[in-house]
Amino acid sequence: MTSPSTATVTALAPEALQSWIKEHQDLVVIDVRSAAEFESMHIRGSYNVPLPLLSEHTDELAARLGSRVVLVCQSGVRAEQARQRLAKAGIETAYVLTGGAPGYAAAGGDVVKGKDRWDLERQVRLVAGSLVVLGLAGGKFVSPKIRTLAGVIGTGLTFSAATNTCAMGKAISAMPWNKAAKEPTRESAILALPAAGSKSTEAAA
Question: With a threshold of 0.85, does the pTM exceed it?
Answer without folding.
Answer: no
